Amino acid sequence: MKIIRxxxxxxxxxxxxxxxxxxVPTMGALHEGxxxxxxxAKAENDFVVVSIxxxxxxxxxxxxxESYPKKEAADIKICELAGVDVLFMPNASAxxxxxxxxxxxxxxxxxxxxxxxRPGHFSGVLTVVMKLLNLVNPSRxxxxxxxxxxxxxxxLMVKNLYMNVTIVAVDTVRESDGLAMSSRNVYLxxxxxxxxxxxxxxxxxxxxxxxxxxxxxxEIKAAMRQTLAPLEVVYxxxxxxxxxxxxxxxxxxxxxxxxxxVGSTRLLDNIWL
Length: 273
Ligand code: PAF
Description:
The chain folds into two domains: 169 residues, HUPs (Rossmann fold), CATH 3.40.50; 86 residues, 2-Layer Sandwich (Pantoate--beta-alanine Ligase, Chain: A,domain 2), CATH 3.30.1300.10. 40% of the residues lie in helices and 20% in strands. It is built from ten helices and nine strands. Strand 3, helix 3 and strand 4 form a beta-alpha-beta unit. Helix 7 crosses helix 8 and helix 9 packs antiparallel against helix 10. The chain is globular and about 55 Å long. It starts with a strand and ends with a strand. The site of pantoate has 10 residues, from strand 2 and helix 7. Pantoate (PAF) binds next to strand 2 and helix 7.
């Protein structure tokens, strides 16, 4: 596995790669969720690039940029064992100049849900993903469904800007107790981990009510909030797959999303119905 830290060195190196290229962008502290993205990329392409970059522009003032988990040696081992061909690990000064052009997330879909609680977050995500896609120029890029709004906005960016890449959505990987895998789970104490299980439980509550067929969107959201109590709920939402409000649930075109604070850790989860 080749490790590259300079953006232009990566671009130059990948110009010699003629095979189908799969790309998995990450912020490191790799877990089984990332591994499933890498495995899917390996299965569908001849050459796989993974990036590890804790992107400063997607963190708001006062968020966990400085303390975001870093496990460089373990991450390198995981990528090597998974058969990654190139691991790109730039630092922030290599990726950003002091004053530069950036992308703006769309006002409606970029500033609801996580976009409301983290204004500007998705503009940072889109800008870095655009930079990374331009450097790697992959046939396919892999993103987890856990970050459903991020996945939706990246799909929108690729469509709106006529980009030449297929975005592949990969199912959420969960711990055996149901907690969605996230690099931020390491912040949770044992007690908080137990509390955090209310998040996936609230999605089970929603699924059960959907199956019974005679509950409204408002009733399902209220029942989810009951399951989540006493966690601080950031949002509970039921939208269509275009991230627009739904008055009636349409199975096959709905996503149920939840974000809650467990202690000071912000966790999100969702289910696609
Ligand atoms: O989901 C992530 O890990 C990040 O938001 C991403 C897509 C790598 C951009 O920094």
